[in-house]
Design a protein that fits this description.
This protein is 63% helix and 12% strand. With 149 residues, it is of the alpha+beta class. It folds into 2 domains: 59 residues; 88 residues, L1 transposable element, RRM domain (Alpha-Beta Plaits). Strands 2-3-1-4 form a 4-stranded antiparallel beta sheet. The chain is rod-shaped. The termini are far apart.
């Protein structure tokens, strides 16, 4: 019986030693995973900052036009180009060439009390700055209750 108990105790000791070895192995693996996760979280936060900077830089090429009257089916790009050309009559060709994308924020609703904000993407910074400067003193905008921001 002592022999049998000794064999059982040795078997238990071996299985406990094996379990401890596995636990130690898992602890080292967890440390590696933890350091990798921390590095990845740091890289992710750095990438988020870079993405925010890139988006902010891209928005610098945009202008917002408020107060453009709307109809259901309309060519907003042509309407905005005409408004911008009315602001700066000397630069029709340059403005037509440099306005890249025009879109309105939100969905069209027929019973809307206010018109939607229009975003204008301009490909040339000098054209953008020219429109921005002219908007401050433009009679056409004030007469038509428009605002460039």
């Amino acid at each position: 019986m002592i022999n049998h108990n000794t064999v059982s105790i040795d078997a238990l000791k071996k299985s406990i030693d094996f379990a401890f070895a596995k636990v130690d192995s898992l602890k080292t693996d967890m440390k590696v995973v933890k350091t990798t996760t921390e590095k990845n979280e740091q890289k992710l936060s750095e990438l988020e900052l870079k993405l925010n900077d890139a988006e902010r830089y891209q928005r610098r090429w945009n202008l917002r036009l408020h107060g453009v009257p709307e109809e259901k089916q309309e060519d907003i790009t042509a309407k905005v180009i005409n408004i911008c050309c009315s602001m700066v009559p000397d630069a029709h060709a340059k403005i037509r060439e440099d306005i890249d994308i025009v879109h309105q924020l939100g969905r069209y609703q027929e019973n809307m009390r206010r018109s939607r904000t229009t975003i204008i993407r301009i490909t040339n910074r000098s054209t953008r700055d020219l429109l921005w400067k002219k908007a401050k003193t433009c009679e056409y905008l004030t007469k038509n209750k428009l605002r460039l921001g």
